[in-house]
Amino acid sequence: MKILFLSAEADPFIKVGGLGDVAGSLPGALKNIQPSLDIRLCIPRHQALKVDGFEVEPYKIFDLHRNKVESYVKVEKIEKDGVDVFLIGGEPFSRSKKVYESDVSLDGEKYFFFSLASIEFVELDNWIPDIVVANDWHTAIAVVDVYHRRSSEAWKNTKTVFTIHNLGYMGAGTNDVLTRFGVPELPPSDLPWWGNHMPLPMAAKLADKIVTVSPTYAKEIQTHEYGCGLQEFFVSRDQDLIGIINGIDLVLWNPARDPYIPASFSKDDLTGKLTNKNSIQSEFGFEVDQAVPLFTIITRMDQQKGVDLLVDSIKYLEDKNFQLIILGTGDQKLEQKSVLLEIRYPGKVKTLIKYDPKLSRKLYAAADLVLMPSRYEPCGIAQMISMRYGTIPLARITGGLKDTIQDGKTGFLFDELSPEVLADTMSRAIKLFDDKNTWNQIQQNCMAENFSWQISARKYLNLFNSM
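Structure (tokenized):
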């Protein structure tokens, strides 16, 4: 079976969010389960791409001709975990320093070029895939391109899977770019009229199967609250819609062998976790006291992530003894509110406006609880990582958070979107923290959970085989 994965990012080469974790881990996990699979992963040759430690092999050069676009394509090859990774480079990426630009039309130029060039590349290389897996709106046009190529003998049996990591981003504002690349509007269909020339809805319409990154999110996008105007369409495709929870790399995220944390620890011996907590408390000027529960939130500063709820909830907890570290960057208003929170509660709240993977690891290893008060969360990875490190998640019941956390057993869950309810749930956790036997049992339950990619990969493999 030949499987082609297309992604805007893939760890360890380039990673901005959860998509990078998926594209970096899933192909290798599939190959590990079934070594006979012939898997290729195509990612863009971003300027910020990191290839240290990998041998980069020049592979192919060709010209892409699409309507009014004529562009030079340079392909390089890397091998990782038994998977051939192809870097698709060209002029649109030489003009863009960021993986994702604030101007969606600029991203349209990059990613439509990348998607079409990737499909053209495998055909020129005489490697026609049995399955094409595209991820989010950035690679959605690959699904459309394969659909139109099926009139040829070579592509007639190729199936497509479109994976939605976040429905909130559909590629709106790229119509003119689609026209420049010669991507035709879909004829009237069961999509809303505006979806017939928008990348994500087009791919969802034409793909053979649609995957979301958790079972609950697959149900949620069929509702008015989460469907972003496509809920009726997703209801009509319910038989082709499947939710598969993401996994995490258990080697990469392992407190017993993590080189970035001060003290290693395991499920059987949590002594090192106490050392990590002392270290963080000292580093951030908090009182060094194991009796004080330490919360953290490691997040993109965004309304989706419920950062505003957290900021507004703290006033209801003024009489409680706790510490909170906020780490993240994004929306400037939320950044400012988070910084003001530290000013208002010195010695209790610390805010760091930055993206810092190494500090993130130290926080996962040191904190008692990680906060995820998301308005919606298609999958979520922070809760899986935190549980791996014996840090208990406190989250809203939505999407993948609902699928991976059990209230009272492996975490604390709340439903209503209000600062008061979030504060009540944090109070519940603070009170239970004093009951060390119960707390330690919840930690043990968390660390016993298995979020290995092998489990998720088997579900993907079953899907591919069924197609």
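The chain has a mean pLDDT of 96. The chain has two domains: 2-247+454-466, 271-450.
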